[in-house]
What we know:
Layout: H1 3-12, H2 17-25, H3 33-55, H4 62-78, E1 84-89, E2 98-103, H5 107-111, H6 114-133, H7 142-150, H8 152-157, E3 159-160, E4 163-164, H9 168-188, H10 195-202, H11 205-219, H12 230-249, H13 254-263, H14 266-270, H15 274-284, H16 292-311, H17 317-328, H18 330-333, H19 336-339, H20 343-353
Antiparallel strand pairs: 1-2, 3-4
Helix pairs in contact: 1-11, 3-9, 4-6, 6-9, 13-16, 15-16, 15-17, 16-17
Amino acid sequence: MSRLDKTIIKFSGAKNYMDQLAQVTGHMNSIDEAFYIQQINIVKNTYISILNELKKHSKESGMLLDFITVIEAEYKKLNLNELYHDVIKKAKKGKPEKKIHKVRITPKDIYESKWFKLIVELEKTSADLIGQFGIESNKMSGGHKEIIEKEPIIVDTHTFYGIKVNTDEITGMVFAASKFINKAIEILLTPMYDIKAHMDKNWLPQIDEVLGVQLKEKLGDKAKDVPITEEDIKHYVYTFILTKYRLELTGNTGEFAKTLMKSLDSSVIGSCNPARFINLIDGLKLDEVEDNKGVKKVVELARKELIKVSENQDIKPADLLNDINEILSYGDKEDDSENNENKDSEKEEEKEEIEDIFKD
């Protein structure tokens, strides 16, 4: 349980604090139809624009053509043009049948679709090339041109689906793919209602009093001469909800999410580059971590990696994967003292977790 969890429980006076907090923030899994349609339209327009750019170069590479064929088929199968549909509820005795307007495809469905996996792959490929060639805009930099001139083997090896990144046009396509798809991924990793507007409408002054103290402690010397504003606290709560949502959406095991939230400030995940966050979570293969001890070990390594990602928005996916390989080899690096960990210490930790949070 994180410190923010405990503070919110203290504020709400109930352990089902997410239900209590939802009165102020809204339920994180709720979907506002107008907002949902608007956000998915942005995602669709982004995808179509990038796809049209890819098609301009499809004849240059069979690899790119194959990718376009597959992603188009998966997009058609997903059908984001029909987010809602009408369902007829059969009539019961003495009552008429009802037509219910229901969500046909949820954010979770989109996240778990093959189309979304391909979108993440496209962004990852682009981001690696941006890191490799030092791309900062839609045109080649001096450093990029120097690599083309002096290190042709790098240009031949690091390609965009078989196309060399050696012109302004291809550079611009790679840059746009990473930048705009990352924005689409961020949308899909955010609750589908206007959280900030909901908080503005339902905010309570008591929240400022309770969370303001904790936030001042968290900021330490930085907050000595700077007052903690309501906006600061709202942002703090917003990142907390965002973190909860992203951990749940990405399908993490409950134990992993619980342990990670306890050891990591929620603002870290909230400020992570969305695509790099997915790369890290997908790479961890949490379904293969069975025992509680293994989860804690992976969490500790993942925590360090998430901090790194949150502090460096330009980190390359390839570098992240190298770090993940180290994370996944945790079992080979455990020493004898870890293997013989005393059960009493685990009991003590459990005791601390359920200690009376209402004590001063």
